[in-house]
Amino acid sequence: MRVKFWGVRGSIACPSPNHVVYGGNTSCIEISSGDDVNIILDAGTGLRALGQDYLTRPQVRSAVLLLTHTHWDHINGFPFFVPAYQTGWRFRVLAGHLAERGGVQSVLASQMAYPMFPVPLEALKAEMVYEDFHAGEDLNHLLPGVGIRTAVLNHPNGATGYRIMIGGRSVCYVTDTEHRPGRPDENILGLIAGADLVIYDSTYTDDEFPAKVGWGHSTWQEGVRLCRAAGVGKLAIFHHDPDHDDAFMARIEAEARQSWDGTLVARDNMVVEL
Description:
By secondary structure, the chain is of the alpha/beta class.
């Protein structure tokens, strides 16, 4: 089970000299196992580079794209995903918060509609399958040998957390979500219990959090608390605030490692093998 981070930033991409070490692309993660299991988590700006990489892999012709939600930073790479414009590819695109809001296909079409974008969704030549579900449902039908559990997250307009299980290993993707201080989120604890790796919304620090209540995000310290309580192997600090430049992130990394040696700070192009 291979996990690659193609985009780790939150809110907005940061292509600047101060965001080189930890990366400036927004949320996109690839999970793969062998040639047949290709899962994409979110479609931020990191999806563009993943698409270019797919073109160099003749064994890859399909993937499942799981969206946490459809705020801009999690979908604005979708119109630049080159394989979707080519025949011979197949992509299943799923979201767990839009069944009563027009569906994921309608939302992605609106992003690419005039006057926001010059190329409509109908221009995609790959076989595109759009599916809606309700967060909390299992998605064990998508790929042979792959178990997928989902959970409701606390975020404006809704969001979905995922647990992906392959060959006895498990990765959880929990972003974007806001915690309540002193009250661990039982939905998240149930989703991540015993996981090998949890990728968690660590947009803020505990010191910054009081001024951001209601914005729908959490802290790396809360991620540590949840993972230790749930018996998790490793925590990936993720969804970095655009105001957190490389120097700030280096301080977080040092402090997080002192707090718990199970932490790592996600960076663009980082690979974790399970």
